[in-house]
Amino acid sequence: MPLCASGVPHENVLYIAGIILPDRRIGIAAVAPQCLTGPGFYRTDADAHVSVLKALRTYRLQLVGQVHCHPWRYVSHSELDDEEAIVRAAGHWSLVVPHYGTRGMLPLHRCGVHCYTGGQFRRLTRPAIASRVMIVPTLMDLRGGGE
Ligand SMILES: [Zn+2]
Predict the structure, then answer these.
(1) 26-53: average pLDDT
(2) 131-141 tens-digit pLDDT
(3) Which of 65, 110, 113, 146 is spaced 20 to 30 Å from 90 by Cα?
(4) Structural domains of the chain in order of their starting residue, each with its CATH number
(5) Most distant pair of Cα atoms in the chain: their distance
(6) Distance from the CA of 114 to the center of ligand 1, in angstroms?
(7) From the CA of 65, how far away is ligand 1's center (Å)?
């Protein structure tokens, strides 16, 4: 799902729906909320959040994280990012993608990968990202080549 559907790069947000287990969170689907967007900002409101929660309930999923983009390479959480996060609770993930997402999200260490811990979003180091975040392919074809 493109982060910026309008074709003009700008800030935007997606939520990650999935499953929360005691020892891990598994993201399954991206949810694009109703959102006011523009260069350097995005805004969601309570109605948008309610719609997201209804969509999650339909599929019996939970909100495991969120993704938003920034201009340039800056991927730290701003004060506004902290305040506007849909969830501020232990274990909630927040990924910040540089360059308005126009260059993709990989390798993941180019993004700001934050986890809400100890009452605030903390940015993970590159080794922490490598040990705590795994991207599972949507299809694993193990049939091998040939015949
Ligand atoms: Zn931000």
Answers:
(1) 92
(2) 999 999 989 99
(3) 110
(4) 13-132 (3.40.140.10)
(5) 57
(6) 11
(7) 14
